[in-house]
Amino acid sequence: MKTMVERVLKSSHMLGLARTRQVPIMALCASLWTMTGSAQDGEAFFASDVSPHVEPCFACHLDGGVADNSGARLVFRDGADSFNYNAMADFYAHSDVDQTLILAKISGGAGHGGAQIHASGSSGYKAIGKLLDIISGNNNSGGGSVDQDFWRGLVLESRERTLRRAAIMLAGKLPTAGQLKNAAKSELNLRAALLRFMKGAQFHDFLITGANDRIHTDGFNNGMSFEFGFEGVYQEANLARNLERCEWGPDVSRQRQIQQARSLSECNYREAVYNYGVIREPLELIAHVVERNLPYKQILTGNYTMANRYTANIYGAKKLFSPVNPEEEYDPSAAVKYKKVRDKGQADFSGDFESQCDESGCWVKKVDGTISRPHAGVLTTHAWLARYPTTDTNRNRARARWTLYHFLGIDIERSAPRTQDPDALADTNNPTMNNAACTVCHERMDPVAGAYQNFSEFGKYRDSGSDSLADAYKFPEWFGGDPDDTPYQQGDVWYRDMRQPGINGKTTGKKHGSAAWLGQQIVNDPRFAKATVAFWWPAIMGANPLTAPESTTDVDYQQQLNAYNAQQELMDELAQKFRSNNFKAKQLFADMIMSPWFRAEGFDSEDLNERMVELASVGSGRLLSPEELDRKAFAIFGTRWNERSSQMVSGSVSGDWTQLRYGDERIAYGGIDSFGVTERARELTALMSNVAARQAVEFACRVAVWDFNRNVLKAIRNDCSTDDWWEFDWNRKVCQLQPPEPRPALFNKVSKTTTPSEANRAKIETQIVLLYDKMLGREISRNALEVKQLYDLLESRYQESKDQGWVDNPCWLGSEKYDSLSWEQANDPQGMVAAWSGVVRALMNHYWYLHD
Amino acid sequence: MYRDITRRGLLRNALIATSGFAFGGVAGSRVYAAPASYKGKLLVTLQLNGGADVTCFCDPKENTPGEPDINHWADTAGTMTKGKISYAPFAQNQKFFNKYYKQMMVVNGVDAQTNSHSTGILYNWSGRNAVGAPSITALHAAKRSPQHAMGYTTFGGYSQTGNLLRFTRVNDLNAIRSLLNPTVNPWDGGNTRPTNETRLVESYVDDSLKQLKSSGLSPRQMATVEAYTQARNSRQGLANLFDIMPSADDMVPDDYVATPMGWNSDLKRRMQGALLIFKAGLGSAADLELGGFDSHDANDGWQDPLLSHTTEAIDFFWSYAQELGLANRITLLIGSDFGRTNFYNDADGKDHWPIGSYIVMEKNPVWGNRVVGHTDELHNALKVNPKTLMPDQSKGVNILPSHVHLALRQYLGLEGFANEAGFRLDVESLPLFDRSRSTI
């Protein structure tokens, strides 16, 4: 039996369709299994096929359980098949209960307090669906598959268009004509082409951005309080910032003084770089695993982390990088070049050590030895641990909650029962261990929290020397309590009044390596693969994974459920392929892009008006995020809006600065700062449309000026410095804006002197068609209405310039905006650069420039 | 070619067509025009995220002999009262309640029925503990200002819209000054590009959107085309905001909040931004948020500075609203995820507790100076009679966030609109805004 993706795609291309075609999906979605008839003995079927699948329900749906106490009408008995069959039949007999409701609840919908038990299409879902068919005497469960007509009327986009969209998204590149032609030949060719675009700096950026969209560790780069306190734990961190080395003194050379004057200060610079390195560790680790095509499991099992030059020093691996040349001290790349490293730098506080404290904190002066930090990929990185810090009473539960969410797809908060008895919360007899209202979540969450036992509030390893337990737990007498009022015993590393470290009912006796054990358990869990699909879903599909609708009274409930079920089935299939491909993330990305969810271009469906909600996040038409819009600009123009190199992008860390990335426009355009704003806007608002308009106003002219002066750009790039003041050099030309990287010319059919006339009309119209295709990814003919409109715009602007006799300042933005070009080079004798910049501006405001 | 849509679908489409979230098939024939400046009722939420300790605020609790201490302040002081409103002698409460007691109704003993932050937030700001429902502010904006440039603005907090409209996210209004009028230099007011070019570009983009709408789009494309169209049509109003914006120096500076991890709060500047948006006639609803109330450690060390900052900011809010001539039009709803336990934990903090409070404020409302709902000495919610609001343990009901939201919907004239949109609240109606009814 073919998977849904195969059914859809095979049908689309088996006839050799090269461009957009309608695909008759209905015929391909044949019933997955056939009813065996209502004569089958319900009880026997329950015992043989259903019983194991209702066992997860026992967590709540037993007599006296959370569901029972909350008023649920379905109550089972553990191990009593006959009773349980009748319980199900009785439940079904209620007038307001039907198969749809029950199947919705077990798949996490209809307000099911226990969230999803069985995904749509899973064996458990099918078995219960079949049982309900037997009970009802109907055949309504649809074989447990998703709405069989979900993909009816699907129109897939062409392979060329898929390749273009993906190449921009993944690599900030436009495919060449040859690549498009080759990809158009077959699905296999397309897939291979997709994989070839998964490399380079822009792909790295795609990975960093996509991963951060989920784990939000970049919040520390955007104002979130940075509380690592490395100097108090890593001697090298203290040495790196050693104030004595940064202070002025008679022995400091003149050259050194100049160097110091040019930077904020050496110590602050180093601190900024190693802080940045620490913040980016988990993201760089994920990117490293994907880019090297390593099994994705390593993001949680890798016995290493990633370090830049300064974090490598701190972690005791300074030999990884070449010695620092004073001239390279402020090399911007120091912050963003990472290598694989093991952290062996933390002071061993169980031995002798010397530290010093003042009002600003403590720092390590001298240690007898260091320890080797146990690694478990992302899980043990400082930034991950600090982003979800523990407290004396939280005890790693936030870490557990997000670990389960991101890596196993379990949303503990949503799986909590909707209503709680206040008495349970007033229970002071260790309710998380003993009270059913609490244990429903804590049974799953607390062992995972325990696996993080070695890591203190902001991620230090055993910060007391022997453990990271709260002092209030170990020494209640320090807080006015009774010294005997604690179960703590010397040598413990975890709380005795909590569940033991573990997961899924398994416990681990490992102390030093419990996090690594946890990582291994997670990646071996069948849910890890699907959680990975969900993790990368927003980056590729431009929308968050759907959640199961919870209220059957919602107007769009059925549509939401249809979409959710279809998405779950697709995710299951993608997860299965991911496993088959030995957890290679690039293969997963390719499969996701090849899926109809990414490639749907339209639906030829008579009832489309009734399907708006269920298809609302399917296919093309996503609003590009600030980062994606930057990547698109880079692909087309070789530069981005107000791009500057070597600018402060975090503390005193330098990098490529762009308006959409680091300006106020990022949030205004729906982006995130991973701190105060963690959800992206997915549709344009009035303010956002003004950001797009502002970008077009400023950026279009620059693009046009530069493109018409391509012959001098190369020389400019070689002769161009930045405006960072420590880089200032009178002997070099200062470029406030970074000239674009070489790209095929935008204006290759016209020159600055090709003015509108009947003689030049064909040439200009052809240029408009080419520009339209390049910027919007859409082909139009020369006689299309839009070509005429753009021609008229061009002609009007030309005429205006001619009438005013005012043509030598095409951008009206002040000379500093294009001062990398000389005044003569930027000259616009016929006003045509200004006229074409108007056309580019119009296209930058076009729906298909801002969406994809 | 389209099949007849169901009555429910028809209702939905009609609703979304008037609220700015219509799709191509429905919206194709619509003619957009920039909406007039909004002059009607305004709704603002102030969401105290993390779980504010209302026993240190508007539902004061003294310690009970034989029980663990519920509040340290009760070791040395007793509950205070102004008008009919009791409050804790804590933080800057006295100053706040003395000044505003006539402008508020306190709803105590609201049972969020959860100790999950996400469910508590969901329930307290949408009135429903299942996902998918709009916030009360979204409902208000969807009815009152769906086509306006910033019909619904969120400065943080729960702001789900139930697909009724889109919200605009703003952090710092000052930072987006140059975006309010993208073709004008903010430094000299001059045009960045020739006006003729701007006119031609605008005309071209409008035409291209019309052409797109008639070109057989997918639902996703229809939705985003529609969003873009509406955004473009409503953005003219942003220039009004540009015109009334104070200089950068006159925007409110940050306040340092001395919690154990002190930080600079820009809550007042966000309030200023929301009020300026209202003043410009760009919208009818805004959400404000202040986080940090999740005081598992050092409860009083967190709650004291945060509540002080909260009341000081609310004071600023009403003063500035008065200055802008908006105070008579505003309803301010203050609440949190839930409350905090009726005892301190080992870290002198308090954990999650499902019982919380709301405060509803207006300028001189007829229903002011009242408390409805109540709790016992250990902050357990007690039932009230659904008709009289008097304590009634036998026939009464526990007040839930859904009760409060239903009362608000009725008071603000949103109930029918919400029901038609499919977001009915199936709870009994409580006469919270009836000035003749009180619990205490």
Account of the 3D structure:
The complex is a heterodimer of chains A (852) and B (440). Chain A is mostly helical and 852 residues long. Chain A folds into five domains: 42-144, no CATH class; 156-202, no CATH class; 228-371, no CATH class; 390-524, no CATH class; 626-850, no CATH class. Chain A is built from 37 helices and 15 strands. In chain A, the strands form seven sheets. Chain A has a three-stranded antiparallel β-sheet. Chain A has a two-stranded antiparallel ribbon with strand order 3-4. In chain A, α10 (201-215) packs across α14 and α26 (557-580) crosses α27. Chain B is of the alpha/beta class and 440 residues long. Chain B has one domain (41-184, 237-420): Alkaline Phosphatase, subunit A, CATH 3.40.720. Helices cover 32% and strands 14% of the residues of chain B. Chain B contains twelve helices and 16 strands. In chain B, strands 6-5-9-1-10-13-4-14 form an eight-stranded mixed β-sheet, sandwiched between helices. In chain B, strands 2-3 form a two-stranded antiparallel ribbon. In chain B, strands 7-8 form a two-stranded antiparallel sheet. In chain B, α9 (267-279) packs parallel to α10. The longest helix of chain B is centred in the last third of the chain and has 25 residues, at 299-323. Chain B is globular. Mean pLDDT of chain B is 89; it is low at 1-32. The interface between A and B is large, with 96 and 106 residues.
How is this fold's topology laid out?
The complex is a heterodimer of chains A (852) and B (440).
Chain A: H1 4-13, E1 21-22, H2 42-54, H3 66-69, H4 81-93, H5 99-106, H6 123-136, E2 154-156, H7 159-171, H8 177-183, H9 187-196, H10 201-215, H11 235-240, H12 243-246, H13 254-262, H14 266-291, H15 298-301, E3 305-307, H16 309-314, E4 339-341, E5 346-347, E6 353-358, E7 361-367, E8 370-371, H17 382-387, H18 397-408, H19 412-415, H20 422-426, H21 431-434, H22 436-451, H23 471-474, E9 502-503, E10 506-507, H24 514-524, H25 527-541, H26 557-580, H27 585-594, H28 596-599, E11 600-603, H29 626-637, E12 644-650, E13 653-657, H30 659-662, H31 665-668, H32 686-708, H33 710-718, E14 720-721, E15 733-734, H34 758-776, H35 785-804, H36 832-844, H37 847-850
Parallel strand pairs in A: 14-15
Antiparallel strand pairs in A: 1-2, 2-11, 3-4, 5-8, 6-7, 9-10, 12-13
Chain B: H1 7-19, H2 24-27, E1 42-48, E2 80-82, E3 85-87, H3 93-100, E4 104-111, H4 117-126, H5 136-144, E5 152-154, E6 168-169, H6 195-213, H7 219-234, H8 238-244, E7 255-257, E8 263-265, H9 267-279, E9 285-290, H10 299-323, E10 330-336, E11 339-340, E12 352-353, E13 355-361, E14 370-372, E15 374-375, E16 381-382, H11 401-412, H12 415-420
Parallel strand pairs in B: 1-9, 1-10, 4-14, 5-6, 5-9
Antiparallel strand pairs in B: 2-3, 4-13, 7-8, 10-13, 11-12, 15-16
